[in-house]
C-alpha cells in the first residue's frame, strides 16, 4: 500500500539505492582500499584520507599509552584498593568510528552541491566540505556514518557571534537608538525569516523536501543529498490510519525557516573554527548579512512625540521646546500646507509640514526626535577593531514619558 | 483696593526681581501636587545617597530660571557614593581610575537601575544588553578553545569530558579540533545564567552600592538576581564601549571565567 504513494522519480532513486546496497554488500564502496582508489582523483581527497589514517594511528597510540598507564597503575596499587572506573576504548570501537568518519568525509568530497556552495560563498580552504555538510544537517537527520554530527551546537555558537556583531554594528552606527528599536533592528538582521532569505535566495541552499518514504528507502548519505539542507519537517499529526507511516512529530522536528537559519548560523561558527580569526568572521558577517539594507528610521512609532521631546530636552539640559509656524500657504483653501519647526531657544531641532497646524506640530516633534535618535558619528570605529578609539557615546537610556 | 496697593508698592517689585518662582520642596509622605525633596528619595536601598553628576548646561541662563529646583550633588557627595566601585576597579587595574579611563559619570550609570527615580538619571539597561552579548560570545570562544587540548596522556581521559564513550564519539567530529559539543555541558550553560551572574555580582559587593527602587520593603531582602546580574553585564558593556573588545576580553577571562574554572 505504501509503495503506491511513491512517485516515478523516487522509484528510480529506490532502485539506485538497492543497487548501491547490493554492491556494498559485496564489498564495494566500503573497504578503505576502494576509498583510496577514489582518492586518486584529486589531491584534496588524498589529504583527507591521509589525515584520517594519521588519526587512526594517533588513536591507537593513545589507547596503547592508556593501557600502559593503566597497567602500571594497577601494579602500583595495593590489591585491596578499588579498581579504576575508566575503561579503555576498545580497538574495534575506534576502528569502526574512524572508518565511518572516513566514509562520511569521502562522500562529502564527491558532492557537487557542496563544492558549488563552497565556491559561491568563497569559503577558505581550511573550511572543509564535510564540515559544510554538517552545517546543513539539522538535528534528527544524522545518518549512520555521522551520528552526533548535526549542526545544533554549531548554530548555538554561531548565533552568539551573529548577535554580538550585529548589535555592535548598530550601537556604533546609531549610539542613541532606543533599546526597543535596537532590538527590532537586530531582529531585522538575525531573525529566522531574514536568515532563511539569506540562505535560500542569496546563498542558494536547497532544502531536501523528500517524502518520508523516500528517506526510509534511499541511501541517506549519498553525495547528492549531502549538499542539501537536511531536516525533519514538522508535520501536522495525521489521523490514525494504517496506510500512512507514523512520524514522530515533536522530537527533533523543525520548519524549513528554522532549519535554514540554523544552517547560516552554523556556517558562521565553522568559518570561525576554520579561520581561527574573529576579524575574518566579522568581515564575513558584514559582507553577507550586514550588507543588507535596513531603513532604521521606519522602525520608529511614537505615542506622544511632543511630550517625549519636552522630557528629552529637560534631560539634556536644553530649553523647553517651542513649536513655531515657519510658513504656510492656502489657509482658507481646500488643501492648505503648514510648515512648522520645533525650536529650543534659537536652535531648530526639527521641521516638517502637514495640512493642519496640529499635524504639522506633531510631525515636527517626530522629526526632532528622529534627528536626535538617529545621530550617527562620522567614520566610527567598532569596539572589536584593533585600533579602537575614542570611546563611543554612551546613551543615557530611553526617555520614560 | 488692597490688591492694587500691594502690587503698586515698591516691595512687590523688589520681590519679583529677586525670586522668579517660589518653590517649596515637600518631605515625608507623598502629597498630591507637591514637589518632593530629592534628598528624600534619591537614596539607594542600602542607604547610600545618590549624587548625580550634572553636565555643564548648554544654555546656562535659561536653565537656571526654569530648573532652579534641579537637584545636583556636591563633589564630595559624588566621590563618597562612588568610593566602593572605584576601589573595586582600582584593585583590578589601577590605571582605570588613576588615569581616568572610565569617567565618574559612567561609573554611576553602571550602578543605576532603570527603576531608580523613574529613569530620570542615566541608567544601565542598554549597557547591560551589549555587555551580555559580548560576555556570551567571549565565554563560548573560551569554551571551545579549552577543548583544543590534544589527547596525549592519562589526564586527558580522566577529564569529565571523555569519561563516557558517548562523549568520545563527539571527538571524532571535531571541526579544526574545536569541540562545539562542549557548549551543551551543564556547567558551561550555568555560567551564563542569571543566578550565577548575580552570585558573582554579590561576591564583588556590587549589591551594596546599587541604586534601584524596590517595589516594597520586603523586596529588598529577596533574591533580586535579575537586578544584580544586570550590574555585572552593564560593567562589561561600559568597559567594551570605553576601552574596546581586547581589554574587555582580558577583563572577563581574568576576573570572571578563570577564577570559577579553578574552583571547578
Automatic annotation (TrEMBL), chain A:
Report keywords, A-Z: Mitochondrion, Ribonucleoprotein, Ribosomal protein, RNA-binding
Q: Which GO terms describe its molecular function?
A: double-stranded RNA binding; ribonuclease III activity; structural constituent of ribosome
Q: Where is the major localization of this protein?
A: mitochondrion
- InterPro entries per UniProt: dsRBD_dom, Ribosomal_mL44_DSRM_fung, Ribosomal_mL44_DSRM_metazoa, RNase_III_dom, RNase_III_sf
Q: Where is the DRBM domain?
A: 304-374
Which Gene3D superfamilies does this one have? Answer: 3.30.160.20, Ribonuclease III domain
Q: Which BP terms from GO are recorded?
A: RNA processing
**Could you tell me which residue ranges the RNase III domain spans?**
114-199
Keyword Mitochondrion included in the entry's annotation: yes
- Alphabetized CDD domains for the sequence: DSRM_MRPL3_like
Entry's SMART domains? DSRM, RIBOc
Q: Where in the cell is it found?
A: Mitochondrion
* Any one Gene Ontology cellular component term annotated for this protein: mitochondrial large ribosomal subunit
Report the PANTHER family cross-referenced here.
LARGE RIBOSOMAL SUBUNIT PROTEIN ML44, RIBONUCLEASE III
What protein family does this chain belong to? Belongs to the ribonuclease III family. Mitochondrion-specific ribosomal protein mL44 subfamily.
Q: Under what name is this protein listed? A: Large ribosomal subunit protein mL44
Q: Give the species this sequence originates from.
A: Ascoidea rubescens DSM 1968
From TrEMBL, chain B:
Q: What is the protein's given name? A: RNase III domain-containing protein
Instruction: List the top taxonomic levels of the source.
Output: Eukaryota, Fungi, Dikarya, Ascomycota, Saccharomycotina
State a GO cellular component annotated for this protein: mitochondrial large ribosomal subunit
The record's annotation in Gene3D superfamilies points to: Ribonuclease III domain
What one GO molecular function would you report for this record? ribonuclease III activity
RNase III domain location: 188-244
BP GO annotations: mitochondrial translation; RNA processing
Domain of life here? Answer: Eukaryota
Q: What InterPro entries does the entry give?
A: Ribosomal_mL57, RNase_III_dom, RNase_III_sf
Amino acid at each position: 500500500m505504501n509503495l503506491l504513494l511513491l512517485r516515478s522519480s523516487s522509484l528510480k532513486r529506490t532502485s539506485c539505492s538497492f543497487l548501491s546496497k547490493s554492491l556494498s554488500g559485496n564489498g564495494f564502496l566500503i573497504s578503505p582500499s576502494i576509498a583510496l582508489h577514489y582518492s586518486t582523483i584529486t589531491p584534496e581527497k588524498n589529504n583527507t584520507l591521509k589525515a584520517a589514517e594519521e588519526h587512526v594511528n594517533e588513536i591507537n597510540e593513545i589507547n596503547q599509552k592508556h593501557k600502559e598507564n593503566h597497567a602500571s597503575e594497577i601494579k602500583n596499587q595495593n590489591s585491596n584498593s578499588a579498581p579504576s572506573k575508566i575503561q579503555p576504548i576498545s580497538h574495534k570501537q575506534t576502528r569502526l568510528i574512524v572508518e565511518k568518519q572516513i566514509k562520511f568525509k569521502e562522500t562529502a568530497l564527491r558532492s557537487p552541491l557542496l563544492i558549488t556552495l563552497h565556491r559561491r560563498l568563497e569559503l577558505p580552504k581550511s573550511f572543509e566540505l564535510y564540515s559544510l555538510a554538517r552545517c546543513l544537517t539539522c538535528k534528527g537527520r544524522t545518518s549512520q556514518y555521522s551520528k552526533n554530527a548535526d549542526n545544533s551546537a554549531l548554530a548555538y555558537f554561531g548565533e552568539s557571534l551573529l548577535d554580538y556583531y550585529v548589535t555592535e554594528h548598530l550601537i556604533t552606527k546609531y549610539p542613541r537608538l532606543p533599546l526597543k528599536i535596537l532590538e527590532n533592528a537586530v531582529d531585522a538582521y538575525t531573525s529566522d525569516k531574514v536568515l532563511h532569505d539569506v540562505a535560500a535566495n542569496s546563498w542558494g541552499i536547497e532544502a531536501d523536501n523528500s517524502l518520508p518514504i523516500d528517506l526510509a528507502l534511499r541511501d541517506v548519505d549519498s553525495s547528492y543529498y549531502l549538499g542539501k539542507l537536511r531536516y525533519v519537517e514538522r508535520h501536522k499529526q495525521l489521523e490514525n490510519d494504517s496506510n500512512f507511516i507514523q512520524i514522530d512529530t515533536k522530537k527533533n522536528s523543525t520548519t524549513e525557516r528554522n532549519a535554514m537559519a540554523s544552517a547560516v548560523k552554523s556556517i558562521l561558527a565553522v568559518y570561525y573554527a576554520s579561520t581561527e580569526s574573529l576579524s575574518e568572521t566579522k568581515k564575513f558577517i558584514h559582507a553577507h548579512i550586514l550588507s543588507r539594507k535596513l531603513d532604521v528610521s521606519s522602525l520608529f512609532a511614537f505615542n506622544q512625540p511632543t511630550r517625549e521631546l519636552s522630557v528629552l530636552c529637560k534631560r539634556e539640559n536644553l530649553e523647553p521646546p517651542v513649536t513655531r509656524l515657519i510658513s504656510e500657504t492656502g489657509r482658507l483653501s481646500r488643501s492648505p500646507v503648514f510648515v512648522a519647526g520645533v525650536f529650543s531657544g534659537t536652535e531648530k531641532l526639527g521641521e516638517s509640514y502637514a495640512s493642519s497646524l496640529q499635524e504639522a506640530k506633531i510631525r515636527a516633534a517626530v522629526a526632532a526626535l528622529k534627528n536626535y535618535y538617529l545621530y550617527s558619528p562620522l567614520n566610527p570605529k567598532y569596539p572589536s577593531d584593533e585600533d579602537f578609539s575614542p570611546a563611543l557615546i554612551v546613551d543615557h537610556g530611553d526617555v520614560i514619558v | 483696593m488692597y490688591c492694587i496697593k500691594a502690587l503698586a508698592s515698591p516691595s512687590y517689585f523688589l520681590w519679583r526681581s529677586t525670586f522668579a518662582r517660589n518653590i517649596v520642596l515637600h518631605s515625608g509622605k507623598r502629597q498630591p501636587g507637591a514637589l518632593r525633596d530629592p534628598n528624600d528619595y534619591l537614596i539607594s536601598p542600602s542607604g547610600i545617597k545618590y549624587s548625580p553628576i550634572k553636565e555643564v548646561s548648554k544654555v546656562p541662563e535659561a536653565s537656571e530660571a526654569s530648573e532652579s529646583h534641579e537637584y545636583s550633588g556636591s563633589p564630595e557627595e559624588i566621590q563618597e557614593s562612588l568610593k566602593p566601585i572605584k576601589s573595586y576597579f582600582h584593585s583590578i587595574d589601577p590605571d582605570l581610575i588613576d588615569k581616568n579611563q572610565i569617567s565618574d559619570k559612567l561609573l554611576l550609570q553602571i550602578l543605576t537601575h532603570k527603576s531608580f527615580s523613574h529613569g530620570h538619571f542615566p541608567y544601565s539597561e542598554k549597557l547591560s544588553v551589549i555587555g551580555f552579548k559580548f560576555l556570551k560570545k567571549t565565554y563560548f570562544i573560551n569554551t571551545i578553545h579549552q577543548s583544543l587540548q590534544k589527547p596525549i596522556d592519562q589526564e586527558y581521559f580522566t577529564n569529565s569530558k571523555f569519561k563516557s564513550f558517548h562523549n568520545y564519539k563527539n571527538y571524532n567530529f571535531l571541526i579544526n579540533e574545536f569541540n562545539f559539543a562542549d557548549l551543551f555541558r551543564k556547567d558551561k550553560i550555568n555560567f551564563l545564567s542569571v543566578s550565577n551572574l548575580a552570585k558573582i555580582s554579590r561576591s564583588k559587593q556590587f549589591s551594596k552600592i546599587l541604586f534601584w527602587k524596590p517595589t516594597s520593603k520586603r523586596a529588598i531582602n529577596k533574591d533580586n538576581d535579575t537586578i544584580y546580574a544586570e550590574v555585572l553585564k552593564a560593567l562589561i558593556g561600559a568597559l567594551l564601549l570605553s576601552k574596546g573588545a581586547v581589554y574587555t576580553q582580558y577583563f572577563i577571562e581574568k576576573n570572571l571565567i578563570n577564577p570559577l574554572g579553578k574552583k571547578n
